[in-house]
């Protein structure tokens, strides 16, 4: 049986302590800049905060993974290199990277620190994963959310590194690391600036009848009826009109969250080494609830008991959940 | 029984000023996460109360006051919901995204300001509500307990989403 480590989000120092106390095996976090894919206003860590967080986590046996999982624009790699140097100096346990240049810098400069390949690298084939392992010493790959469990099992047999999969949270997959929809409307890049649908470009408008529209850079991307559940204001989750449709429809994806709580035993059996919970942008309340629930579930499975999962649907986007491609390629 | 709808603005105004200054003094790191939105006017609108709350989280000139809705300043950002939900969000006992998804929480105006305020409050350890209650000793704690009983949210009580 794999170790089934629980990898948990931390958007702030308080959230990190919450995740550690709730039973995280590792937490992942980022700096307050474009070096990570949750570069949201008021979120993330200063170097001093990360230093304290590493001490807190390590004292409780929890690892700290630093997300450097965006792509440096040409000529601007210094920010990523400085972040890597700072992380290594503070004693983080692994870097999560997507860009080959960043991976190469860390492999050359900080070879003592583990490298994990971010989902943003979109490496889903054994050939691609092996390339990262052989050239940069990657120890773990976070798989894109496009593979079925049998496919994961097959990939596991053909690669020399550990596998981490998402098990809960935002399900904005598209082609991970290559989505330019936000860039198209706002000029800011999810992959280089670290922010999908930047809050400064988001506006919500409510009509007298309770209808709410969400807008990005002045474009309406969805409109929710008075009693309809809402989702994130991202283009990939928007509803659009088209000549061949009578009503507005979800052209890309629906607002829905991944929840693989019922598939944990199969994932462990497939050789998944670590389970990732999405949500660095979420609150301590979310972190506490989701980490605690999955901590109990993983412990139950490890002990040979059936897992009794708490109902987490209230925390899901649009209050809907899916097992996505992990269950079937026809999930949409 | 505590009934928030009967609380007049004038009665709570001195308390609000006292509370916000004490909280700011105890949690100075809040302001760093607010960044440029320290000077934003937030209107926090608990729908059951006869007034809204005007917050300008400027550490040099803090404003936190109860205002009649028809006399409220035009806000940079508006946050509206049931009183107890807003209280639980402030304490990170409820998840803001989930409250938004369920439509229990309404936000408008400057979304970045709202996100910064949410993240700043979420990084506070402990309960601001309980800190506030403690400032007023046993009576404060009794009032908070009554509020939580009388205005339950999904997490601490019995209201279904």
TrEMBL record, chain A:
Citing just one GO molecular function, the answer is:
peptidase activity
Source organism superkingdom: Bacteria
**Biological or metabolic pathway of the protein:** Cofactor biosynthesis; ubiquinone biosynthesis
Q: Which InterPro entries match?
A: Peptidase_U32 (IPR001539), RNA/ubiquinone_mod_enzymes (IPR051454), UbiU (IPR043692)
Q: Name one GO biological process term.
A: proteolysis
Q: Which UniProt keywords apply?
A: Hydrolase, Protease, Ubiquinone biosynthesis
Give the family, as the similarity comment puts it.
Belongs to the peptidase U32 family. UbiU subfamily.
> Self-association or partners: how does it assemble?
Forms a heterodimer with UbiV.
Q: Describe its function.
A: Required for O(2)-independent ubiquinone (coenzyme Q) biosynthesis. Together with UbiV, is essential for the C6-hydroxylation reaction in the oxygen-independent ubiquinone biosynthesis pathway.
Q: What is the protein named?
A: Ubiquinone biosynthesis protein UbiU
In its UniProt entry, the species of origin is given as: Roseovarius lutimaris
What gene name is given for the protein in this entry?
ubiU
UniProtKB/TrEMBL annotation, chain B:
Span of domain SCP2:
53-122
Top-level taxon of origin: Bacteria
> What's the protein name?
SCP-2 sterol transfer family protein
Q: What is the lineage of its organism?
A: Bacteria, Pseudomonadati, Pseudomonadota, Alphaproteobacteria, Rhodobacterales
């Amino acid at each position: 049986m794999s170790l089934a480590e629980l990898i948990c989000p931390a958007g702030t120092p308080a959230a990190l302590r919450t995740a550690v106390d709730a039973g995280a095996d590792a937490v992942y976090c980022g700096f307050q800049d474009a070096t990570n894919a949750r570069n949201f206003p008021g979120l993330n860590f200063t170097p001093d905060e990360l230093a304290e967080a590493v001490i807190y986590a390590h004292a409780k046996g929890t690892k700290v993974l630093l997300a450097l999982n965006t792509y440096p624009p040409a000529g601007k790699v210094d920010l990523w290199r400085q972040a890597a140097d700072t992380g290594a100096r503070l004693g983080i346990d692994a870097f999560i990277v997507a860009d080959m240049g960043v991976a190469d810098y860390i492999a050359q400069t900080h070879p003592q620190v583990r490298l994990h390949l971010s989902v943003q690298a979109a490496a889903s084939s054994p050939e691609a994963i092996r390339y990262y392992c052989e050239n940069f010493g990657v120890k773990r790959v976070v798989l894109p959310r496009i593979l079925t469990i049998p496919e994961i099992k097959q990939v596991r047999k053909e690669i020399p590194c550990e596998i981490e999969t998402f098990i809960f949270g935002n399900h904005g997959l598209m082609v991970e690391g290559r989505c330019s929809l936000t860039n198209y409307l706002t000029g800011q890049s999810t992959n280089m600036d670290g922010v999908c649908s930047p809050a400064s470009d988001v506006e919500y408008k409510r009509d007298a009848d309770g209808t709410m529209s969400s807008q990005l850079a002045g474009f309406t991307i969805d409109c929710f009826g008075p009693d309809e559940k809402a989702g994130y204001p991202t283009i990939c989750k928007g509803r659009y009109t088209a000549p061949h449709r009578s009503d507005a429809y979800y052209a890309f994806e629906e607002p829905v969250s991944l929840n693989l709580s019922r598939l944990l035993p199969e994932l462990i059996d497939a050789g998944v080494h670590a389970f990732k919970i999405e949500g660095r942008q979420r609150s301590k309340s979310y972190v506490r609830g989701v980490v605690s629930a999955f901590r109990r579930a993983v412990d139950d499975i490890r002990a040979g008991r059936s897992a009794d999962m708490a109902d987490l649907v209230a925390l899901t986007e649009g209050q809907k959940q899916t097992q996505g491609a992990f269950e079937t390629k026809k999930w949409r | 029984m505590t009934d928030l709808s009967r609380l007049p603005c004038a009665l709570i105004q001195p308390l609000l000023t006292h509370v916000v200054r004490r909280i700011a003094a105890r949690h100075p790191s809040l302001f760093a996460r607010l960044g440029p939105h320290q000077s934003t006017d937030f209107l926090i609108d608990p729908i059951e109360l006869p007034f809204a709350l005007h917050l300008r989280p400027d550490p040099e000139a803090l404003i936190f006051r109860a205002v009649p809705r028809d006399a409220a300043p035009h806000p940079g950002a508006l946050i509206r919901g049931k009183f107890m939900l807003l209280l639980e969000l402030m304490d990170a006992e409820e998840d803001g995204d989930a409250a938004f998804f369920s439509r229990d929480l309404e936000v408008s105006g400057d979304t970045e300001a709202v996100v910064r305020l949410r993240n700043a409050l979420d990084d506070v350890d402990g309960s601001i509500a309980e800190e506030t209650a403690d400032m007023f000793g046993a009576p404060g704690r009794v009032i908070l307990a009554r509020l939580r009983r009388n205005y339950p949210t999904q997490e601490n009580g019995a209201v279904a989403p």
